[in-house]
Amino acid sequence: MEEASATARLREYRQTSAQAFDTQQSRLRDVIDDTTRTSTDRETAALQLFAQHLTAQSWWGLLRDAEHILQLPPAQQLSATVREQALLQLATTRWRLHQRQEALQLTERFLREFPSSVYYTSMEVQANRLLLELREIEQARSSAPSELAAAQARMEEEMRKGPLVPAESRYWVRKRCERLVEHFLLEESLPVCHAIIESWQKDPNVEVRQEVVFAWRAKVTALAELGRFAEARANVEQFDAFVSSHPDLSDTHAQVTALRSGLPLDEPESSAPR
């Protein structure tokens, strides 16, 4: 009973915090748009707003507010320092959301518009990393047919030597889930990875549970790459519950935390125009 009461209180605290957070953000936006306020007040409000979004992982909201600041008419524009921060946050957040082409365009815009910025070198690094990721994705997709066919041929060769033991069968199924994600065949990977999770998560065998860990990690990665963040978050919580219920998987908590930290905690609707 006490545990249920504590859970209810924690839920109330979160709701109260969310309401206070929304109220504070609304106040900061009002200050930003109020041209009767001093430039210092408006700029401080903008920087505080960026910081709040980053702390709360409200990345869609960060996109909305950064875009709004950059689109202010000339008479209402904030300082170059704030516009620089807005563009930096916009480019970096598009990358966090796996929108690499948009992120690259915005990063190049930053390099053009703010050549003397103290962030120039780090944004140049970001541009090169985005280019590398885009090339790697293209190569992974183009090599998928031959590499997946080769993996299938290897499995069939093993089967010709004799029936596969259960561990070997599981290995090939799990590796297909992972390979599909690695080759960015994301939609195709989801039913494969999901079937592993559904079929094997209640197996008492420790080795089978490890295969489920690999599959769940791959599934969350695929959902995030597809921009299906609400589903990814739900799967992270299910993955966390699975890990927590098995002491032999305690060292997997770090993986769960890493997956969770890579996801926005707000919804895309929060990026709608104000």
Walk me through the topology.
Layout: H1 2-33, H2 39-56, H3 59-70, H4 80-96, H5 100-113, H6 120-160, H7 166-182, H8 186-200, H9 206-225, H10 229-244, H11 253-261
- Report how far the terminal alpha carbons are from each other: 43 Å
Order of SSEs: HHHHHHHHHHH
Gyration radius (Cα, Å) is 23 Å
CATH class of the largest domain: Mainly Alpha
Short overview:
With 274 residues, the protein is an all-alpha fold. It has helices at residues 2-33, 39-56, 59-70, 80-96, 100-113, 120-160, 166-182, 186-200, 206-225, 229-244, 253-261.
What does this structure look like?
- The chain has 274 residues and is mostly helical.
- 77% of the residues lie in helices and 0% in strands.
- It is flat.
What are the salient characteristics of this protein?
77% helix; mainly alpha; 11 helices; disordered C terminus; 274 residues; Serine Threonine Protein Phosphatase 5, Tetratricopeptide repeat
